[in-house]
Amino acid sequence: MASTTETKQKKMLILKSADNDEFEIEESVGVQSETIKNLVEDGFTFVPLPNVYTKALIKIIDYLKKHANKTDSNDEEIKTFDKDFVNTTFDDLFELVSAANYLHISCLMNMLCQTIADRIKDKSPEAVRKIFHINCDYTPEEEAKIRKANAQAFEGQFDESLD
Amino acid sequence: MEKQKGEEDDERSTCICLLTLPEGCIADILALTSPPDVCRFSLVSTSLRSTADSDSVWEKFLPSDYRSIIARSSTPIPDFRSLKDLYVYLSHHPILIDEGRKCFSLEKWTGKKCYFLGARDLNITYGDSPEHWGWTSLPESRFPEVAQLEFIRWLEIWGTIRAGTLSPQTSYTAYFVYKFEDDYGFDIRHMEVSVGISGVESENVRIAFLHPNPQYVPEDLYDSPYTPPSPFDGYVRMEDVDWPEETDSDDKPLPQLRDDGWFELELGEFFTGNEDDCIELRMQDVKTDCRKQGLIVEGIEVRPTIA
């Protein structure tokens, strides 16, 4: 086992996605995730992630690799990387936030939540339903009641666009 | 087997949406929007509403020290079922605190703190001299007492507020709130207004009239700083003349009539970057001997600057 020999070789982990794809990454990259870190501390080197699908995992591994190499000089580069990272569809963002939440990567969670929040600000309820595939389950009477309460608290125009 | 896998994918793609996330995660996202956004999102569906109305979201919109502010309230505050109800209440019902000397409310769009320092909370030179200033109660005031000017030459009013009691990293504007019972002297005499850090001489002293329709009296009509011109002389209306040289035309605060019937005059802006800064808000006319009377002072209001 790795614990018995002090090798200079980098310790590696294998992550297994919900779609059964396996990815080998350096332990130092993986432990930015609290979930992975806890498993590593318990001696695991093979980490099954039943809640994370391959598509999201590939992106998240990219993110972890980039942020593991953070230095004083590549601040701008990482900012550009982060900006590109979140420049994707709402559906992808939700898959990523769901995975980041499961993996407990707090800086990624904050960035994704802020991105989603910024993009849904000012949206009308109708637009939010379409973006998030949510069916309205209010009766017209219930909806009217809530609209009235909101109007008493705030007024203003809604943004109907879906991007 | 292949077909089954395809079906699973379809199922998953329709399920990945806001509501498949843990509730805490949705609450985090909602708390990063704004109070009116979250209210609106409660219309999306019943399940989103339960998160949108939750205390974990609204606690983020309330100031971190809201409990201790409410504890200073002079009047009992109703029991609220939720922090959202408390937020809506505080953004529509300013509460009197500190023995009725201050008023506290929330700016409804952002939840930022607003304070209104009542006349009793201000420093008014000669304020305890009954021949100059009287204290009275007015039904149209939110405070139990307002200051009423009998007559004075040395008019000097200032208040202080520590930046740390306001919302952090926020631009605020301060307003002097008043009305006239009689505007004697105020129509021809301008005031000096300033906002700055206490103990540091303010570089932003501006001149402004409290009177909504003032007349400008050129300094050369003064016999001396201590001999003001007679108010019965015919002076020029402000719009007909150039303002005094020291006034930048873009930097000319004018009084505004508020919805509550009082006037307000902008004193200046400040930024709450350093919580230990003690901000001084000042309005005065101490350079001439002009007699003034009939001013009623409600206080100084401090609210977030509208971008």
Characterize the structure shown:
- The complex is a heterodimer of chains A (163) and B (307).
- Chain A is mainly alpha-helical.
- In chain A, 55% of the residues lie in helices and 8% in strands.
- Chain A contains eight helices and three strands; from the N terminus they run ββααβαααααα.
- Chain A is elongated and about 70 Å long.
- The mean pLDDT of chain A is 88.
- Chain B has helices at residues 2-15, 23-31, 35-41, 46-52, 55-61, 66-71, 83-92, and strands at 95-97, 102-106, 113-118, 123-124, 133-136, 146-149, 155-162, 171-180, 191-197, 206-208, 215-216, 236-237, 256-257, 263-271, 278-285, 295-304.
- Chain B has seven helices and 16 strands.
- By secondary structure, chain B is of the alpha+beta class.
- In chain B, a hairpin with an 8-residue loop joins strand 9 (191-197) and strand 10 (206-208).
- The A-B interface holds A 53, 91, 94-95, 97-98, 101, 109, 113-114, 116-118, 120-125, 128-129, 132-138, 143, 146-147, 150, 152-154, 156, 158 and B 12-14, 16-22, 25, 28-30, 32-37, 39-49, 88, 91-92, 108-109.
